[in-house]
Amino acid sequence: MNAPNISGGVRGALSKPPVRLLLAVVVVAACLVARLPKWHAESVDYQVFLQNWYHYIADHGGLRALSDPGFADYNVPYLYLLDGLTHLPVSALTGIKALSVAFDLLQAFFVFKLVALRFPGRSAWQPFAAALLAVLLPTVAANSGWWAQADSIYTSFVVGGVYFVLRHRPWWACTLFGLAFAFKLQTIFVFPFLLVMVVTRQVKWQSLLAIPAVYLALDVPALLVGADPVQLLTVYSRQTGSYQSLALNAPSLYHFVKTPGSTGTADLVRTVGVAFAAAVVIALTALAVFSRTGRRAVRRASTGASLTPNQVLLTALASAVTVPMLLPSMHDRYFYIADVLSLVVAFQLPRRLWYVPVLVQAASLASYLPFLYYELPGHYRKYHWSANEWRLISGLMILAALAVLTAAVREYRCGPAESARAASAHDSDQPPAEAALSR
Questions:
Q1: Distances in Å between the alpha carbon of 26 and those of 106, 138, 267, 430, 437?
Q2: Which segments cross the bilayer (predicted)?
């Protein structure tokens, strides 16, 4: 008698539409349940900013309130969404959090799609596992369900943009990057990734025009109600001058930098930091372009040759984790893109980089705690990290960045065939079909 094929039975069950629908329902239910414990908590950001913006819009004629967008320091696309919430029979807190949760689910959908490229087939369980983990990541759940922040909005578009880069749909990719940039300036953390994609001809440079086109198109409704175009176009430049500290609860290199109290010295360190970040971006771009893989992609772009999925995803994550680490005046939530993309990369290279999302989550969540507990009496001192504790937290993020950069360098130095053989020699980080395609 033959033993039953259990794994084949599981795969067969997963391929059935009712089972896949049930798994999708589980992801949505888990997303909602994970956010319930702090659903009614009002963070400082909600109390000081978000609810005031909501009520200003409600009290000043809805969209007509955007004739003076200076009442808020977010760009107008988010204010459009707040206007929509004012017409719903829900409280400001519930509406704002529900909006962010909806984009948590969109973000998980694109995580699902990215991991499904790595594990194709209707019977694969990994995409569902990735989507489930995406909604349960502590920083993701806390960001929307506790903090009432909206980082999943722009990050969902960034993750979607990466997906369409891998699908060789550059105009769709850049349209989503344009949507992300219209919502949040922090989208610039993945602009080095876009630069590498363009110079290696993974993305046509003409498609970059979609980014400013989308940004400007989303300004049109505000212009029609009388908003000052100068205010609309300078919203991000005004944001960059709001904070002067070298590190604002972000696990960055600046926790290792000691400066005297003089403003001039801090400004010098800030300038050097920006220059160093630019130099690192240029070096990474040069590595991608002049590596064997990069040269081959540039020479054969007309024939459809492209970077491997490993290279694309590692470049995106390297950009998302390295740029905010090197730039000064970064906030605690600025590693949100890295939080999500590190999960995708762990599924892409599970044997080599499974621990990267653990490091990134540990550092990001530790950075969240001082601010999340700020409004609760007796808790702020408990989570007010000392200088040495901040160095330890930042060290975790640095380790994650080094691991990703090392893996990216390795992938670019190897040709596609060598990369596939190396993966095979290590019990295969790539499925056979993908390894063949990478050749």
A1: 15, 18, 50, 28, 33
A2: 21-37, 98-116, 128-150, 170-196, 208-227, 268-290, 354-372, 392-409
The amino acid at 230: V
pLDDT tens by residue, 188-217: 999 999 999 999 888 999 999 999 999 999
Rounded to 5°, the CA angle 282-283-284 comes to: 95
Instruction: For residue 94, give the 3-state DSSP assignment.
Output: helix
Contacts of residue 435, defined as CB under 8 A and 6 or more positions apart, other chains included, come to 420, 423, 424, 428
Q: What are phi and psi of 307, to 5 degrees?
A: -70, 160
The 10s digit of each residue's pLDDT in 280-290 is 888 888 887 77
User: 152 with 99: CB under 8 angstroms?
Assistant: no
- pLDDT score, position 432: 41
Q: Exposed, middle or buried, 386 (CB in 10 Å: 0-12/13-18/19+)?
A: exposed
Tell me which residue has tokens 């507990």: 373
- Do residues 19 and 130 touch, judged by C-beta distance below 8 A? no
- Transcribe 339-374 into DSSP letters: HHHHHHHHHHSHHHHTTHHHHHHHHHHHHHHHHHTT
State how far the Cα of 243 lies from the Cα of 330, in Å rounded to an integer: 9
Token pair listed for 71: 């009442």
Q: Over the stretch 167-191, which tens digit does the pLDDT of each residue have?
A: 999 999 999 999 999 999 999 999 9
User: How confident is the model over 125-184, as pLDDT tens digits?
Assistant: 999 999 999 999 999 999 999 999 999 999 999 999 999 999 999 999 999 999 999 999
Gap between the Cα atoms of 394 and 311, Å rounded: 25
* Residue 161 · residue 131 · CB < 8 Å: no
Single-letter code of the amino acid located at 257: V
- The residues pairing with 247 across neighbouring beta strands, listed in sequence order, are 330
Residue 243: pLDDT band with limits 50, 70, 90: low
Residue type for position 142: A
Is 436 or 346 the better-scoring residue by pLDDT?
346
Rounded to whole angstroms, how far apart are CA atoms 205 and 207?
Answer: 5
Q: DSSP secondary-structure letter at 300?
A: T
358: pLDDT strictly greater than 60: yes
The tokens 């980014």 sit on which residue?
211
Q: Say how many CA atoms lie within 13 Å of 171 toward its Cβ.
A: 2
For residue 108, the tally of other CB atoms under 10 A from its CB is: 30
* C-alpha angle 41-44-50 in degrees, rounded to nearest 5: 90
- Per-residue pLDDT, 119: 94
Cα 430–Cα 433–Cα 439 angle in degrees, nearest 5: 85
